[in-house]
């Protein structure tokens, strides 16, 4: 398999929105609409095909990684506010899911994944978006549906992107500073096993997504989006000026959306992206 099997060679990324401070955290809803964040401007935007990009009226501080949960709430890593929050976009109600462990607030929650049990895995690096100091080692956490927080991985130098497979049985984790991708088996809510160094890269990985064939798409900043098969074969690179995060969406979930610094991009593919566990129950 080659990248040309996934994306036709003549197909180019399209600019769907521009003028952002730093776009991040794309998340698809059940209809394939894409929500993305702009932490520098404390903003969350939504892209709907044929309608363009609009800004949501929500109270978010330094929003970064996002995903929808089983209740249809938009979960948001509010980095410089040290918390993971849930936004009900219909009522405007916001609730905090996690903001500390052992009495210490987090560094800067960055990215997250939701499992079938309603629990949330999230990474906690510190990029000092608002000049905040690092208060503890940069690790990975799990908050269950009752609000209990546990530390689940300490292997990364600077954890960043995190992703669950479509069956919820495999967790992928990007170590940005270490330039590595780790993979875990999931035994149950917040219970990881078989830690494996899955890939070593020549660039710093950020956001991740998968397609239905098991190919992993890794955002690597100015190095573009690197694509690897399920058996770790390099398939090629989607060349974009910058890639911070990515997800599939659109009506058929065959459009790959990429947050790209001050821009928001989309590229048509020949493969369907996975539906995260929350979308499979809706």
Could you characterize what this model shows?
The chain has 282 residues and is mostly beta strands. It contains two helices and 26 strands. It has helices at residues 3-6, 277-280, and strands spanning 14-18, 23-28, 34-38, 43-48, 52-55, 63-68, 74-78, 83-87, 94-98, 100-101, 104-105, 112-114, 120-123, 140-143, 149-153, 159-164, 170-175, 180-188, 191-200, 208-210, 216-219, 225-228, 234-238, 245-249, 255-260, 263-268. It has a four-stranded antiparallel sheet, with no helix packed on it. A four-stranded antiparallel sheet has the order 2-3-4-5, with no helix packed on it. The chain has a four-stranded antiparallel sheet with strand order 6-7-8-9, with no helix packed on it.
What characteristics describe this protein?
282 residues, mainly beta, 4-stranded antiparallel beta sheet, 2 helices, 46% strand
């Amino acid at each position: 398999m080659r990248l040309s099997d996934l994306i036709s060679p003549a197909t180019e990324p399209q600019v769907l929105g521009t003028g952002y401070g730093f776009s991040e955290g794309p998340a698809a809803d059940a209809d394939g609409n894409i929500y993305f964040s702009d932490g520098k401007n404390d903003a969350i935007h939504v892209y709907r095909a044929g309608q363009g990009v609009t800004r949501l009226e929500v109270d978010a501080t330094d929003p970064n990684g996002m995903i929808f949960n089983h209740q249809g709430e938009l979960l948001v890593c509010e980095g410089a506010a040290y918390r993971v929050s849930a936004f009900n976009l219909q009522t405007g109600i916001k609730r905090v899911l996690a903001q500390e462990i052992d009495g210490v607030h987090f560094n800067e929650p960055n990215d997250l994944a939701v499992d079938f049990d309603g629990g949330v895995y999230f990474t906690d690096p510190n990029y000092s978006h608002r000049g905040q100091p690092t208060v503890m080692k940069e690790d990975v956490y799990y908050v269950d549906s009752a609000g209990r927080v546990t530390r689940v991985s300490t292997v990364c130098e600077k954890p960043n992107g995190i992703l669950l497979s479509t069956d919820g049985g495999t967790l992928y984790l990007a170590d940005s500073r270490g330039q590595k991708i780790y993979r875990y088996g999931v035994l149950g809510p917040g219970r990881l096993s078989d830690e494996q160094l899955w890939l070593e890269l020549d660039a710093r990985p950020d956001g991740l997504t998968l397609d239905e064939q098991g190919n992993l798409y890794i955002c690597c900043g100015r190095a573009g989006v690197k694509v690897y098969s399920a058996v770790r074969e390099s398939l090629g690179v989607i060349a974009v000026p910058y890639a911070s995060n990515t997800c599939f969406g659109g009506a058929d979930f065959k459009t790959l959306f990429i947050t790209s610094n001050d821009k928001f991009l989309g590229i048509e593919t020949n493969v369907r992206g996975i539906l995260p566990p929350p979308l499979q129950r809706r």
